[in-house]
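Reopening this one. Same input as before:
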Amino acid sequence: MNHYSAVVILLLAIICFYCTSAEPEFESLFDGESFAGWKLPAGDNGHWRIADDVIDYDHQSEAAGEKHLWSADAYDDFILKIDWRLTGEKQTETVPVILPDGSVAVNEDGEQKMVEIKDAGDSGIYLRGNSKSQINIWCWPVGSGEVWGYRTDPDMPPAVRRAATPDTCADKPVGEWNTFVITLEDSILSVDLNDITVIDKAPLPGIPPSGKLALQHHDGHIQFRNIYIKPL
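Same output, byte for byte:
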């Protein structure tokens, strides 16, 4: 083997190493035209639908059982990117005030402190097949991105409940698109909303090691688009 051949072989070996060791790329979970990769609820009757590259849900599913839109595949560690917006008509509602530690504020008389908001409903994203690890989407002043099942669980340590509470409200006004970047590694969760970290390395004790994603059926007209995932 001459010197030139040896150099070529070395370069090819280096290229192969980097190709095989590179991080996986984001893969699309929504093609904009069909529910390929998702499982529609049986008997939904068209309330989960697709229009203009957007998943549109009017929260009126007629399915007899499960009404959420579940992914066909399960995932363990990943980064999920997804756009969402609430599009329902705003109604005046009174909701509790959530403190930074995840608890509900109380008045001097010990009653919950309430605040009036313009509410357009809510939804969420289930991680690893688990409603407890739902990333919340709503209009409450504490902001979207909170992990409801952990923030409200009195059996969780105070540090866990605090970490499951958004650091700030980064939501855009109702009707505008928002972007989540959700990172889940082992049992540690981070959530960026519109390029702002609202959940920073929150521990989720007891979360399953793997499971499917779900777009939640609840009481808000919501839309999703640009759904991408990268395994870690």
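So the earlier flakiness isn't reproducible anymore. For the record, The first strand starts at residue 27 and ends at 28.
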